[in-house]
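so the lab meeting is tmrw and i was supposed to have these ready like two days ago... anyway. pasting both below. for each one the top line is the aa sequence and the line under it is the structure tokens. i havent really looked at them closely yet so no promises
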Amino acid sequence: MIVSYATVLRYIRHRLNTLLHGQLKPWAQEHKFNYARLIELKKLEEETQAVLLQRLMAHFQFPTELLRIIVHQSRRHFFLFTSLENLARFKAELQLFDNPPFDAPASPTTPPN
């Protein structure tokens, strides 16, 4: 029931990228998230925003507990899901984001003679 920081970050990035251009700032204000920190999430790879990710996960209906574990003298963050059902739903949503079930693009049609 534990998911890595990188996996949660990937999910959150997918969710934030579903907002159309110009919608992130009003969304952040409406839901009381720091806009600049959300922009940082889109760019940073370091594990610096674990608490923000946890808040976003809760907002998206995935309550988690934040775990900090020392691995090879480095602090790593993991997210413990509070139920197997939420973990399964999270994995299913992430799978859809990673592999969207869209139809293949139509082949170009040739003009009639």
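ok protien two:
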Amino acid sequence: MGAETVRTIETTGAAHTEALGRAVGEVAEAGLYLALDGELGGGKTTFVRGLAAGLGAASRVASPTFVIMREYHGRLPLYHCDFYRLEHGGDIAELELETCLERGVVAAEWASLFEPPRGARVLAAHFEWTGDEARRITMTAHCERTRECLASINLSFPQ
């Protein structure tokens, strides 16, 4: 599998966080599992809003907190999950995430509560507050395909 690649990006506000998500969406491929973690209000849903735009989805992205998963349609389907209210693995099994990954991209908020689905190409993102609107987003690529994804967004977000 190879070594992990870590990249830290400082965003200055919601529009910048959304732009980062858009950059990921523009290069995303089916099988990508975005494991999103961080504080409440840390920018995870804002990032997914940009991800959906980058995938060409026209729908307005809303937090899936109470419905657990929302689906958006663009050049690939986007399955936006929130695991915060799930209590055990049986709940996550019902989502059939392996099937979702065969078709499109999964973005899972509070992903660290469960193991990623089998065969997922994991790109993890941890969101931290660094100011009123500023965020520090630490992205970790766990396989060759996600390292390529991370490298390609360097063009939009130079170090």
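from a quick look at the 2nd one: Residues 89 and 114 are 7 Å apart (CA to CA). The chain is about 30% helix and 30% strand. will dig more after coffe
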